Amino acid sequence: MATKNPITSDLASLPFPETAETWLQTRRAYRLQEISGDQIRAYQQMLETCGPFAINHECSVLQQMLKRIERWPEIAHAYQALPLPKEKRGRALAPEEKEKFLRGSEQTRCQGQ
Asked: What sections of 5-94 are H helices per DSSP?
């Protein structure tokens, strides 16, 4: 069972005007010079349901932009990539594996009719 996002849980307990203001703050455009390590961590937490691969990729793009404007050294100490799961990611089937799979699924489908 997925755990609730603490930011979302906090918003649920606030009155609407405060919730709306908090939500709007998360949607405002930031200049690269304004981004802090705290904001990156909040972004990581806000998107935790997207998975660590996607979030780390987005943060890596942000890191590259911040390096380009020489701002990354000020933030690097506060950034930590999300841990990735230990299990291996999927892979493409070799042609012979694909053929075996398709033959097996065809037999299963024919038996089910």
From this structure: 6-12, 16-27, 37-46, 52-68, 72-75
The domain locations on the chain are 6-84
Instruction: Give the residue among 4, 83, 79 at the shortest CA–CA distance from 42.
Output: 79
Q: What are the tens digits of pLDDT across the range 3-17?
A: 445 455 677 788 888
Q: Is the pTM of this model over 0.85?
A: no
Round to whole Å and give the CA distance between 75 and 41. Answer: 11
Cβ atoms 19, 11 nearer than 8 A = yes
Q: Give the count of beta carbons closer than 10 Å to the beta carbon of residue 63.
A: 18
Q: Which amino acid is at 9?
A: S
Token pair 């660590």 is found at 52
